[in-house]
Write a structure and sequence with these properties.
It is built from 13 helices and 2 strands. The chain is mostly helical. It has a two-stranded antiparallel sheet with strand order 1-2. The longest helix has 27 residues. 53% of the residues are buried. About 4% of the residues have low confidence.
C-alpha cells in the first residue's frame, strides 16, 4: 500500500510542479533551442525537468519513508549530480568537470555503504568497481536523453520493475526510492511526451542514472545463482547501456572523439529514417519491460536458465547493433528548426562524456 502511495504521491507532485518550473524556465530563458543538428524542435523547450523529478522524489519519500544511512547517502549523492547537471544545463561545464562531479557523487555513495560485494577481491577493488558502475550508468542515461520521452520513459519502467523486485526481496527503503523515482518520471512525462514542453536535461538524466545504478548495487538477487547479480542489473538497464556502447563503438570506428556529440544514437538513427519520437520512446519502454522481466526470471531461476537469459540478451544486442549500423543517420539530414534564435553550441543531451 505504501509503495503505491509513494508512487502516486510523486506523480501528483510532479504534475503540479512541472508547469511552475516550465513558466520559470521560460521567464528566465533556461531553454533549449533548435540547431538543425540533433535538436530538431521548432520552438524553444524548457529545461529544469530534472528538478521536477527530484522535488517529487524528495517530498514523496519524506511522507512515506524513514531515512536510514544508506538512503541519506544516496540522496546526498543524487543532490550532487543534480547540482552538477543544473550547472551543465546552463552551459558552463566541460566534460572533465562533469566527470569529476559524477565520480565525487559515486564516492559519496561508496562512503555511505553502497558498494558491490565481491568476496573474492580486496575491498578497494570492489569500491573501484562500484564507482565505475555508477559513473557508467549515470552517463548511459545522460546519453539516452536525445528524444522526447525516451530517457524518462525507460527510467520509469526500469524503476518500477526494480522497485517491485526490491519490495519482493524485503528491501523496503530501496523499493520506495524506486517508486518515488518512477512516480516523478511518470508525472514529468505528461510534459515530456512528443511534442515536449520540458526536457530532463543533464540534471534529470543523471539523477535517473545514479539512482538506478545505486539501487542495483543495493539490491539482493539470488544466493543460489551466482550469475544473477551480473545478469539482472544489465537486463534491467539494457536499453541505456546498449545505446552507450553502440555510440562509443560507432565513434571509435569513425575516428571521432567519444565525448563529443554525434547522431549515432539509436533514437536519432530511427528518427532520421521516419520513426516518430513517440514510437521510439514507447518501443524502448516495451523493450525495457521485457528485458527487465528476463532479468527477474534469471534471478529466480537456476544457473543454466540465468546463463541462457544472458546469452540470449547478448545475441539480441549484437543483432540490434548490426541492424542499426546499416541505418546511416548522416545520409538523412535533420530538419531545420523554424526558430534558430539563440542556438546553443551543443545539441541537447550531447554535453555528456561520451554521448
Amino acid at each position: 500500500m505504501l509503495f503505491a502511495l509513494t508512487l502516486l504521491l510523486a506523480t501528483g507532485i510532479a504534475l503540479y510542479v512541472a508547469p511552475l518550473l516550465i513558466h520559470a524556465a521560460e521567464r528566465y530563458g533556461i531553454l533549449d533551442h533548435g540547431d538543425g543538428k540533433l535538436k530538431e524542435q521548432h520552438k524553444p523547450v524548457a529545461y529544469l525537468g530534472g528538478l521536477v523529478v527530484f522535488i517529487a522524489m524528495l517530498v514523496a519519500l519524506s511522507v512515506t519513508q524513514e531515512f536510514d544511512a544508506r538512503l541519506m547517502a544516496l540522496l546526498l549523492g543524487a543532490s550532487l549530480v543534480v547540482s552538477v547537471g543544473l550547472v551543465d544545463d546552463l552551459g558552463t561545464l566541460v566534460p572533465k568537470d562533469k566527470l569529476l562531479g559524477q565520480i565525487l557523487a559515486a564516492l559519496v555513495l561508496v562512503k555511505g555503504g553502497i558498494t558491490i560485494h565481491l568476496d573474492a577481491v580486496p575491498w578497494y577493488v570492489a569500491d573501484v568497481a562500484t564507482v565505475f558502475w555508477i559513473v557508467s550508468v549515470t552517463n548511459a542515461f545522460n546519453i539516452l536523453d536525445v528524444s522526447d520521452g525516451l530517457c524518462a520513459g525507460v527510467g520509469a519502467v526500469a524503476g518500477l520493475v526494480l522497485g517491485l523486485w526490491c519490495l519482493h526481496t524485503g528491501l523496503t527503503a530501496e523499493a520506495f526510492l524506486c517508486a518515488a523515482l518512477c512516480g516523478g518520471l511518470v508525472g514529468f512525462l505528461r510534459h515530456n511526451w512528443r511534442p515536449a514542453r520540458m526536457y530532463l536535461g543533464d540534471t534529470g538524466s543523471m539523477l535517473v542514472g545514479i539512482t538506478l545504478a545505486a539501487v542495483t548495487v543495493m539490491s539482493q538477487y539470488s544466493q543460489q545463482n551466482p550469475v544473477a547479480p551480473l545478469i539482472t542489473p544489465l537486463a534491467i538497464l539494457a536499453v541505456p547501456l546498449f545505446d552507450m556502447t553502440f555510440v562509443v563503438v560507432c565513434r571509435m570506428h569513425l575516428g571521432l572523439r567519444i565525448y563529443h556529440g554525434s547522431p549515432d544514437h539509436f533514437a536519432v538513427r530511427l528518427r532520421r529514417h521516419g520513426v516518430s519520437p513517440a514510437r521510439i520512446a514507447a518501443g524502448a519502454m516495451v523493450i525495457t519491460a521485457l528485458c527487465s522481466l528476463g532479468g527477474v526470471a534469471a534471478a529466480r531461476a537456476d544457473v543454466r536458465i540465468a546463463l541462457a537469459v544472458g546469452i540470449m540478451g547478448m545475441a539480441f544486442s549484437l543483432l540490434a547493433g548490426m541492424l542499426l549500423w546499416r541505418v546511416d543517420p548522416r545520409k538523412v539530414p535533420a530538419p531545420v528548426p523554424a526558430d534558430r534564435t539563440q542556438t546553443a553550441a551543443e545539441p541537447r543531451g550531447e554535453r555528456e562524456l561520451v554521448g
